Structure formats: C-alpha cells, structure tokens
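Q: My collaborator sent me two sequences in one message, no labels, and asked for predicted structures for both. Can we handle them in order? The first one she listed is below.
A: Yes, handling them in the order given. First sequence, followed by its structure tokens:
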Amino acid sequence: MMTMLTKSDKEKLIKRLEEQFGIQKLDFLLILSGQDKVRGYSGSLSKEEILKISEQVNIETIGLYLFKIHEDGIRLTIDACQILKEQIKKNIIELDDLQAEEWFKGHDLEIKEQNNGFKVLKYKDDFVGCGKLSNNRLTNFVPKERRIKS
C-alpha cells in the first residue's frame, strides 16, 4: 500500500533530513510505501492522477526508493546519496581505499567516531551509501545484489 505524503508531512521529513544531513529540499512527490520506505516521484502525473489510476489498477511501486524512516533517524539509499549529493553537508564519513573495498563487499566497518547514528559514506568524490554507526561499528546496508563479490 502506498500513501502520498501531505505537504505538512513532507515539511516535517525535510526538517529531519536537514538536521541529520543538511538536506533542505526534495523536488519530488513523496510516497510512503510499506515498512516506512519513502519513494520520490518526479514524473508528469499529478498526485490526483496517480491516485485515480491506483483505483483502477494495483500500483505496486512508483518512483525511486530514496530512504527509510527509523525511530532514531533516516537511512538514505545509495541512489538518494547520489541524487542529493550537492545538499549533503552533515554526518559524512570519508573512507580510505581499504575501507571502501570492505564496504563495497558488504562488510561492516570499525570506525572511531563519537557520534552514533546514520552516516553518509564518501569515497573520493562520490557518496557511496549510508550506514549506521553504533559503538564504533558502522553497519552496512548495501543490498546483496549491489555488493562486489569477494
């Protein structure tokens, strides 16, 4: 089931994204799909047109999966990190070559940093994903199909 976010809900979400990552705007129609996943749609159909179509046919998904809302923060997808890279200013961890290789293989990383929470990972000039730091351990959320085989 999908739910279109209201203007108020979108504003609250952008406020959280700004506090967490520095992201100040989302030029998408935001759609909440199962398990607190937020998708962004930027096509030519209006919210009303999408809802009308969904009455006629079952729309499983529409738009691009951007992030998941957790109680303790928002976890960006790899795609969202790429799309929003110009806006991401906070909670960035820079990876070296060895850390990046381990990350791309799907392994968690040992990171010495004080502030726990969701972090965007940067390797050279690219944002390569989002992990959750807790007790100096950065949990990897790279989907299996996107990992480098080791």
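Q: And the one she listed second?
A: Here it is, processed independently of the first:
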Amino acid sequence: MKEIIIKDLEQIGFVAKKFLEYVDENRVFAFEGSMGAGKTTFIKAICEELEVEDDVCSPTFAILNVYYSERNGEVFHFDFYRLVSEEQALDIGVEENFYSGSWCFIEWAENVTNLLPPNCIKVKIEQIEDNQRKVTIYL
C-alpha cells in the first residue's frame, strides 16, 4: 500500500507521475471515492502523464471514453455510476477492454466488482483537511 497526499492542484502532475512509478506494469485501476473526491481530476492528470492527446473528461453519461496516446495507445476511462447492471457493462465489452493490456481507469468500480480482473489495483481518493486529497494505492 502506498499513500500520497495532494496538497493542491498545482501538485497533481507530480503526484500522477509518482503514481505511475508505483504501479509499475499494472494497467487496470478501480478508483474509489465519494462524489467530488477528485477521481476524474486525478485520472486526467495521469492521462496527461501518459501523453493522452484527447480531452479527458468524465464519461458519466457515456459510461466509456476512449483516449489515444502516441506512446501508450488506447486508454480506457470508465464511469459506472449510472450502470444499471453488470450485464450492461458486459454489453459494451468491458471484459475485452480490461484484458487488452491497455490502461483502464474505472470510476465507481464497485458496480462491476464481479467483472474486475484479478490484477486490478484499487485506488482510494479521500478529501482530507484544508481541501487536500489522500490517494491510497493498494498494491
């Protein structure tokens, strides 16, 4: 387990870079945190470190956004907040994405717990004092 504190938004790029160093070869991440904790903001910072060329935004209504990086290929960003059932996730082909070897960032992963691959890394983001965030990576 690794913990990183994000003191302010100016520091988020540095923390995203550290995150990528910690996770090594892992590519599938389940982000946990309350609404407004900063999951999408942190994923956006990670995508910037991965040199994603697209605008990174929450896929709340689309469920899945696919981004592209010249260096890293496709990057999948899921938001299962509005998911009705795990079958709905299967219908959009999540298993293929999860096992593709591509980067996968999953918000509200608790709605697809049974579909997550065994190598999925849990990442918890919590708001702490003075509007700081604590990122806990369960390696």
